Amino acid sequence: MTLSQHPAPTGPIPAKAGIGLRAPHFEQIVEERPDIPWLEFHPENYLGGGAPYLYLERIRQDYPMSMHGVGLSLGSVGGLDKEHLARLADLADHIEPGLISEHLSFARVGADYLNDLLPLPYTEEALAQVVSNVQQAQDAFKRPILVENASAYMTFAASTMPEHVFMAEVCRQAGCKALLDVNNVYVNARNHDFDASAFIAETPADIIGEIHLAGHAVNLFDDGQEIRIDDHGSHVDAAVWTLFEQAITHAGRVPALIEWDTRIPALEVLQDEAARAEAILSAHSDAADAA
Amino acid sequence: MLLMQPNLSTLQADFRATVLADTGADGAEPAPPAALLAAVNANGIPPERRLAIHRNHFATTLIDALGGIFEATRALLGPEFFDAFAKCYVRAHPPSTPGLFEYGEAFPDALANTPGLADHGYVIDVARLEWAMHESFHAPAAPALQPSRLTALPADQIGDALLEAHPTVRLIQATFPVHALWRGALDNAVDGDMLHGEPAHLILSRPNLDVELAPLAPAAYAFVNALFAGQSIGQAAGTGASASTTTGEFDLGETLGACLAQTVFADVVNTGNI
Ligand SMILES: [Fe+2]
Fold first, then answer.
1. Is residue B130 assigned to a domain?
2. Based on the domain organization, do B96 and B176 belong to the same domain?
3. What residue spans define the domains of chain A?
4. Fold adopted by A29-286
5. Which of the ends of chain A has fewer CB neighbours closer than 10 A, N or C?
6. What is the model's pLDDT at position B154?
């Protein structure tokens, strides 16, 4: 198979419901050009410049795209991995994503990558490190990024501020925006007994630049203890849709994204989920127009 | 009492130690560092269990990644053995970059160095083939050398010219008929005769999106291998001729033509002009 070439759409990511680009859907997206307002890709998969990159480059010609990192490790002590950052910046120069985002977590310790979004304590020390790392990333990308609240399966005794205050402070000090993952808010609220709705209400509306939606799993230990795992492998939970409506009412209409990474279903399933998000976004803008 | 909390550097080092610690010989989960256990709030679930989520995530996601790359190897070894072996491997060889497509390079060697697999050389051959295919798939795209670039050289300079490998090309030399074994493993159709077939010489390349695999005669393999090692076309032709098992097996024009028709070379360097 070969891929034809034509010029890419320019401009920002529209405030509509996009979906995550995953390898099983490459060919269908190239051949059928389905009606999807924008796509998000994980840059780590395309750094070799091989066949996956050729698909990415081709699909970029038809869709606005957001670059969503999962391996930059914004929370690592001692700064970012310069080599990896340079590769990301190079990819961004070629693909010209409308947005660039990463997680408020860490993955790299020294020379080792632990292939996970590991939780940070919400301390002044971690805040200073993340702010400095975000600035390093923004210097490399020559633009502000968005930082995403991650899911967490533990909290730390050392934390001195709630997660949303930590996120808002990172945004204020580093000059970045927030990617509010409402599924992660809900997962953390359930795992750590806080009020998800208050998390959203107390997050400054003007820092929210994008919203993520995803499904999660409910895991039960032998003794009946429950923990919610952010596995991006199912439909968005009903409670998370409610939080999404709250977030849109709070922040106004911003780009929203359906994430589905494990047990990846047919593209049409993701499009249906995005249509549901789109209906909520439109209902909000209708309400705003009427006001 | 206010306990001393670890700083961020210690916390992250302890996370690393927890995620990468080996499971005991008896299958017991290793205890995380005491400072990390003290840093994590229990809140109804013991810190060990909370940390175990990340230990498991690390192992299962990387085992899955290896299983995807080494699909035929996994079928030949049996999924249970493969996954158990991979579980030890991922902790001994954690990724050094976040690009998982780069992960697994040392896996065929790790299999080869396992005493219990000494009489399973054919599995190692298949693992090396799968890694080469994986590398070729992810190697940067580049135009293939146009034959006209070579024919445009003055006839007396062709012998001294150097040919550069295309980034997607990989050469495979195997003791076993690895192409048939690989195909057979994926189709669940391996038979014992395959273990007694001829050694294999293969060339892989990716003209565009798909990796292509072709057999090479031993002399042609020696020729291409010599070119990639830096020999000129003339020197490599000598290497090819002396690797011939039958007289007249190696034909320079024919072999070069076949290579140029595939995506084998990226560039030609006319040393006569240097
Ligand atoms: Fe997310």
1. no
2. no
3. 29-286
4. TIM Barrel (3.20.20)
5. C
6. 92
Buried-exposed string B15-49: b where 16+ CB fall within 10 A, e elsewhere: bbebbbeeeeeeeeeeebbeebbebbeeeebebbb
B8 interfaces chain A, CB cutoff of 8 Å? yes
A4 contact residues in B (CB cutoff 8 A): none
- With respect to residue B125, please indicate whether it lies within any of the assigned structural domains: no
Domain shared by B94 and B151, yes or no: no
Chain B residues lying within 8 Å of A108, measured CB to CB: 98
Report residue B44 as tokens: 């109804």
Please name the residues in contact with B232: beta carbons below 8 A apart, sequence gap of 6 or more: B159, B160, B161, B162, B271
Q: Do B43 and A155 touch (CB under 8 A)?
A: yes
Q: How far apart are the C-alpha atoms of A51 and A59, rounded to whole Å?
A: 12
Q: B93 and B63 in one domain?
A: yes
Q: What is the structure's pLDDT at B34?
A: 95
CA distance B124 to chain A (A): 25
Interface test with B, best of A54, A154, A221 (most B CBs within 10 A): A154
Pair (B115, B209) in one structural domain? no
A44, A114, A193: residue with CB nearest B58? A114
The range of the structural domain enclosing residue B67 comes to 1-119
Kindly give, in sequence order, each residue whose CB lies less than 8 Å from that of residue B186, ignoring residues fewer than 6 positions away: B71, B72, B75
Residues of B in contact with A156 (CB under 8 A): 5, 11, 39-41
Q: Are residues B263 and B145 in the same domain?
A: yes
Q: What is the pLDDT of residue A142?
A: 96
Q: What is the pLDDT of residue A6?
A: 62
Whether residues B181 and B272 fall in one domain: yes
CB-based contact B15 A52, cutoff 8 Å: no
Which tens digits make up the pLDDT trace of B180-202?
999 999 998 888 888 888 889 99
Q: Cβ contacts (< 8 Å) between B7 and chain A: which residues?
A: 125
Tell me: do B156 and B114 sit in the same domain.
no
Show which of B119, B150, B171 is a domain's final residue.
Answer: B119
Mutation target among A30, A58, A114, A263 for the B interface, most CBs of B within 10 A: A114
C-alpha–C-alpha distance, residues B94 and B104, integer Å: 9
| A72 at B interface, C-beta within 8 A | yes
In this prediction, residue B274 carries a pLDDT of 54
In a domain, B155, yes or no: yes
Number of domains forming the structure of chain B: 2
| Averages of pLDDT over each 10 residues, chain A, 291 residues | 65 93 97 97 97 97 97 97 98 97 98 98 98 98 97 96 98 98 97 97 98 94 87 94 97 96 94 97 78 60
Q: How far is the centre of ligand 1, averaged over its atoms, from the C-alpha of A150 (Å)?
A: 7
Answer whether B137 sits within 8 Å of A50, measured CB to CB.
yes
| C-alpha distances in Å from residue A59, one per residue of A31, B113, B158 | 10, 42, 41
Given this model, what pLDDT does residue B1 score? 42
Please tell me whether residues B113 and B156 are part of one structural domain: no
- Whether residue A290 lies within 8 A of chain B, CB to CB, comes out as no
pLDDT of residue B198: 85
Give, in order, the Cα–Cα distances in Å from A209 to each of A148, A161, A165, A174, B212: 10, 22, 16, 15, 44
**Is B128 part of any domain?**
no
pTM: 0.94
Query: Does A111 sit within 8 Å of B54, measured CB to CB?
Result: no
For residues B172 and B255, give the distance between their C-alpha atoms in angstroms, rounded to a whole number: 17
Low-confidence ranges of chain B (pLDDT < 50): 1
